[in-house]
Structure formats: structure tokens, C-alpha cells
Amino acid sequence: MNANAVLDICLQAMIVAAKLAAPVLVTALVVGLAISLLQSITQLQEATLSFVPKAAAVAVALIVCGHWMISEMVTFTNDLFAKIPSLLGGL
Predict the structure, then answer these.
(1) Phi, psi at residue 77, to the nearest 5°?
(2) Please, are residues 19 and 72 in contact by the beta-carbon 8 Å criterion?
(3) Which of 23, 30, 34, 56 has its CA at a distance of 20 to 30 angstroms from the CA of residue 82?
(4) Burial of 9 by CB count in 10 Å (0-12 exposed, 13-18 middle, 19+ buried)?
């Protein structure tokens, strides 16, 4: 196994991690921005008002995207296991 193979695996792992984190993070960002805008307009500064809707929206995003996230991780893991013989030098 050489340095290029290690870097390739690390790059693929970071891409998969970013793809898996994106739905949750974007959902939290959009809902947080909307709640912050609502709080600024109404001048109602309550901490739970921003936390509860974000938590609920993230839960919905996980329910909606959960199957896709699991299938992406399974695909990445299967590809990684399939590469093991070539990484070890054909043993």
C-alpha cells in the first residue's frame, strides 16, 4: 500500500462524510436562520424558541434522508472491503 492509495481512501472518506452531514447541517442552518429572522422581527429572544424547531427539523431530515445515508455508507464500506486485496499487494 502506497501513499497515493491512503490519500485516495482518505479523500473518499471525507467526501462521503460531507455528503452524509450535508442534509442535517443545511436543514439546521435554514431553520436557524428563519427562527433568528423571526426573533429579530418580533424581538422575542428565547433560547428554547430556536432550539426546539431546529431539533425537530433535524429529526425530520434524518427520517427523510436516513435510508439514503445508510445506503451511501454501506456502498462506501463495500467498496473499501473490495479494495483490500489490491491494497495488500494481491495477497
Answers:
(1) -65, -45
(2) yes
(3) 23
(4) middle
Q: In whole angstroms, give the CA distance from residue 15 to residue 78.
A: 16
Give the Cα separation of 77 and 16 in Å (integer). Answer: 10
State how far the Cα of 5 lies from the Cα of 13, in Å rounded to an integer: 12
d(CA 20, CA 87): 25
Q: Give the integer Cα–Cα distance in Å for 46 and 3.
A: 51
pLDDT digits 0-9 by tens, 44-88: 877 778 889 999 999 999 999 999 999 999 999 999 999 988 888
Report whether 68 contacts 21 (CB < 8 A). no
- State the Cα–Cα distance between residues 5 and 11, nearest whole angstrom: 10
- The number of beta carbons lying within 10 Å of the beta carbon of residue 80 is 14
